């Protein structure tokens, strides 16, 4: 069983290790790969505020998924969309590459959705996935996301997905 905790600076080395295989991320992100934070210092600079250990929640929520042995197994980000506190966007869902295909991504998404809908009280959560990343499509569908549109781009199209909370 997984649980989420806010990102800490000590997570940066693990995240950098998980994304070290550039061919995987280039496959999914093409020329956008250069925008990924790919080392500890850049990750900490992007995620930490005021040189603190954890990000202060405002509109940006980086999370680390922890297993029963307190081992970090994944990471993802939530952020409000255009300052709208009723809508969150999930992004950069990463699972330790040795654990991919074992349901950790889905568990992370479900925990994030519970937090988004029950704690933050948002109405809608969106996510985008590159059209050629079938494993991510499968994972997001299993977590309840439905496809809403295809955004055409280079080198690949992005499939937009969402979940709307029924009240």
**CATH class, anyone?**
Alpha Beta
Ends distance: 28 Å
Mean pLDDT, all residues: 79
Instruction: Give the helix tally.
Output: 5
CATH architectural label:
3-Layer(aba) Sandwich
Q: What fraction of residues sit in β-strands?
A: 25-35%
Low-confidence blocks of residues: none
CATH topology title = Aminopeptidase
List the main descriptive attributes of the protein structure presented here:
167 residues, Aminopeptidase, seven-stranded mixed β-sheet, 7 strands, 32% strand
Report what the structure shows.
This protein has 167 residues and is of the alpha+beta class. The chain has one domain (3-164): Gcn5-related N-acetyltransferase (GNAT) (Aminopeptidase, 3-Layer(aba) Sandwich). The chain is 29% helix and 32% strand. It has a seven-stranded mixed β-sheet with strand order 1-2-3-4-5-7-6, sandwiched between helices. Helix 1 (12-18) crosses helix 3 (40-47). The model has no long low-confidence stretch (mean pLDDT 79).
Entry summary:
With 167 residues, this protein is of the alpha+beta class.
Can you lay out the helices and strands and say which pair or pack?
Layout: E1 3-6, H1 12-18, H2 22-29, H3 40-47, E2 60-66, E3 72-81, E4 84-95, H4 104-119, E5 124-130, H5 134-142, E6 146-151, E7 158-164
Parallel strand pairs: 4-5
Antiparallel strand pairs: 1-2, 2-3, 3-4, 5-7, 6-7
Helix pairs in contact: 1-3
């Amino acid at each position: 069983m997984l649980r989420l905790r806010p990102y800490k600076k000590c997570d940066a080395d693990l995240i950098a290790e998980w994304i070290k295989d550039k061919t995987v991320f280039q496959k999914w992100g093409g020329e956008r790969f250069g925008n990924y934070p790919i080392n500890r210092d850049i990750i900490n600079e992007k995620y930490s505020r005021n040189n603190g250990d954890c990000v202060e929640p405002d509109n940006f929520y980086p999370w680390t998924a922890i297993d029963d042995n307190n081992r970090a197994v994944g990471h993802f980000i939530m952020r409000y969309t255009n300052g709208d506190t009723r809508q969150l966007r999930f992004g950069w869902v990463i699972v330790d590459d040795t654990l991919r295909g074992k349901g950790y991504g889905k568990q992370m998404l479900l925990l994030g959705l519970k937090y988004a809908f029950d704690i933050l009280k948002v109405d809608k959560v969106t996510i985008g996935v590159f059209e050629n990343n079938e494993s991510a499509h499968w994972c997001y569908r299993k977590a309840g996301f439905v496809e809403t549109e295809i955004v055409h781009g280079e080198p690949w199209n992005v499939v937009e997905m969402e979940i709307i909370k029924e009240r």
